Amino acid sequence: MADKSLNKTELVAKIASESNQSQATVGGVLDSLFAVLADSVSNDVKVTIPGWLAVERTSRAARTGRNPQTGAEIQIPAGHSVKVSAGSKLKAAAK
User: Fold this and answer.
1) Residues 6+ away with beta carbon under 8 Å from 79
2) Which pLDDT band, with edges at 50, 70 and 90, does 2 fall under?
3) DSSP 8
4) pTM over 0.85
């Protein structure tokens, strides 16, 4: 696991510095990106940025689980999840 992290504020500042844009502009673009990703996932639309990442909604079937406190079997309903896959350029940057 990485020892360092970059929060949204730091990411916005770094992108603004590299692109010569204001932090407000970059923050607005990132907020719009996240809104489009959320809307696309909720409408079952896969978003792909070739070489970098893909974001899609996945389905999980109903299943039987166990209550960890009592050990009793419980029914877990079907649901949805989000899958984020790294593209080749992102994978290569991690080496």
Assistant:
1) 59, 60
2) low
3) H
4) no
**Closest listed residue to residue 49, CA positions, set 10, 88, 1:** 88
Structure confidence at residue 3 (pLDDT): 78
pLDDT of residue 27: 97
DSSP-assigned letters across all residues of 10-64: HHHHHHHHHHT--HHHHHHHHHHHHHHHHHHHHTT--EEETTTEEEEEEEE--EE
CB 12 within 8 Å of CB 27: yes
d(CA 71, CA 69): 6
pLDDT computed for residue 1 by the predictor: 55
Collapsing DSSP to helix, strand or coil, 81 comes out as: strand
